Amino acid sequence: MRGWGSLLDDLRDAQFGSRRNTAPFPAVLLVIAFSGTVLAQGAPPAAATASTSQASNPSAGAPITTVTGLTSTDPFSGSVINQKATDQTISLSLRDAIDRGLKANLGSLLIEQGITSARAQHWRALQAMLPDVTGRLSESAQQINLAAQGIRFPGVPPIIGPFSNFDIRAYMTVTGGFSQYEGIRSSVENLRAARFSYQNALELVVFSVSNSYLEVLTQAANVVNAQAQVQTAQALLDQANQMHEAGVSAKIDALRASVELQARKQDLVVAQNNFDKSKITLARAIGLPLEQKFELSDALQFSPPPVLTQEDALHRAYQERLDYKQAQAQVHASELSERSARFERLPSLGFSGNYGDIGISPGSSHGTFVAAGSIQVPIFEEGRIRADIYQAQSTLKQNKDQLSDLEGRIDAEIRTSFLDLNAAAEQVQLADATVKLTQEELSEARERFAAGVGDNLEVVQAQGSVVSAQNQYVASLYVHNLAKLSLARALGEARQNAASYLGGK
Fold first, then answer.
1. Which pLDDT belongs to residue 505?
2. Partner of 59 for a Cys bridge, out of 4, 24, 140, 335, CB 3.0 to 4.6 A?
3. 296: which strand partners?
């Protein structure tokens, strides 16, 4: 599975490609990698993985392209809708979106059922040492043919009865041993792992919803930029027409400005379409009806990341990451399961008994009971016991290897997140400076054209540079916020701090 850093590298590589008079190519958006817990009867939770990837075009203005690893059944991109659309327009902050996602996102709702499955395993393990108590009430009438049974005695009639029999009785059996005790402890650890898996799923919901919210903000900024570029292109066309009518410039200048205006209008159509699609993606993730109108109250902005050293971040990740706690619980559960399998060779204790009233009728009955203790010793069960031991050892080895891999992955994610944060911050600064330079270039080109020093080819080229620079600035803001969000996820703090990391209200 790829780390957050390599994904952000792909995003940066894709977003800054550009061509003349067009916006940069669309960026490849986020792939959410997560591990959950799928619980099977009689076995510890097994790691399950899924991925969430959504197509986006943070730079807008480019041809609509979809690059995705999603399937239509990806749970974290869906939700359960429990409300009806209203005529009002909802104002949605990032924290509001996260709260809605935590309640309605399909991914967390599905993984929550793993807790129920683990709880069922726990009770099944407990039952191995809990008393099994049953009751029975019976009343019967009988007539017996002794002659048919070959019983013949002088003076004894061949037919006995009819006579009645009444019996009310409670039965109890209980067995226990070291194997059952370790099995109960293992089920407790499996239940802990299932709870950690669900909490980790909530972290992934926050990550997914926050990323979708960032997408909408990015596409909204692209729409604003595209609208501004259409206005600028219209002003350039008006200027070129006026100068042509005055005989100052050639008709080709007006034609060139008209072509530029059409290109900018096309960019606006693409940007608006991507914006509308990103809103649908966000609504699906947080459980909003698709008919519901909403607007975002937060803005896409640059905010510094938290002050944190790489060593402190790694320490916090090992303390806070819920998937790491889940893996540790699974290892402990596997160790207890392996001990339980070895203890199957030891004797176990048992008790059985019953107590009740028996007689011809309830009025003429008398109490009776049976009580018996036993020691059960396995004599010829080595094949089954060895199979249980080998199976438990195999599961234990797998879980230990997964825990070791997760430790290395956490380390790599923390290091990658810091590299991405530093690089993204520099990209924002460079993109901001580039926007200012291209705007100054455009202003100078317009003044030269108005003074008749040259044609408007320089103006059109300068405007294309402004478009590219503005799109790159918006994309770099997205990458920087995504890097902060990835750091929160790598630390295991997405649920608590994602909104504050992104500067949300």
1. 59
2. 24
3. 92
Kindly report the number of other CB atoms within 10 A of residue 14's CB atom: 19
Q: Is the pLDDT of residue 498 over 90?
A: no
**For 235-257, what is the mean pLDDT?**
85
Distance CA 281, CA 54 (A): 9
pLDDT, tens digit (0-9, with 9 covering 90-100), for 262-309: 999 999 999 999 999 999 999 999 999 999 999 999 888 888 888 889
The pTM score is 0.75
At residue 59, the 3 state secondary structure works out as coil
- How far is it, in rounded angstroms, from Cα 504 to Cα 495? 13
Cβ(396)–Cβ(339) below 8 Å:
no
Helix, strand, coil percentages in the chain from 3-state DSSP, rounded to 5: 60, 15, 25
Q: What phi and psi, each to the nearest 5 degrees, are found at residue 248?
A: -85, -35
Residue type, 159: I
- Please provide the size of the chain in residues: 505
CA-to-CA distance for 327 and 196, rounded, in angstroms?
A: 9
User: Which residues contact residue 321 at a Cβ distance below 8 angstroms, ignoring those fewer than 6 apart?
Assistant: 410, 491, 492
Per the CB < 8 A criterion, the answer to whether 218 and 271 are in contact is: no
Label the pairing between strands 159-176 and 348-359: antiparallel
Instruction: Kindly list the structural domains of the chain, giving each domain's residue range(s) and its CATH number in brackets, ordered by start.
Output: 4-76+100-130+181-348+378-501 (1.20.1600.10)
pLDDT digits (tens, 9 = 90+) for 438-459: 999 889 888 888 887 767 788 8
**Cβ atoms 352, 375 nearer than 8 A:** no
* In contact, 196 and 322? CB cutoff 8 Å: yes
Strand partners, 295: 91
- The full 3-state SS of 363-388, as one line of letters, equals HHEEEEEEEEEEEECCCCCHHHHHHH
> What rounded mean pLDDT belongs to the chain?
83
Contact call for residues 108 and 202 (beta carbons, < 8 A):
yes
Asked if residue 238 has pLDDT above 50, the reply is: yes
- Only one residue has tokens 């309640």, namely 103
Q: 90-92 and 294-296 as β-strands: parallel, antiparallel, unpaired?
A: parallel
Other CB atoms within a 10 A radius of the CB of residue 177 amount to 20
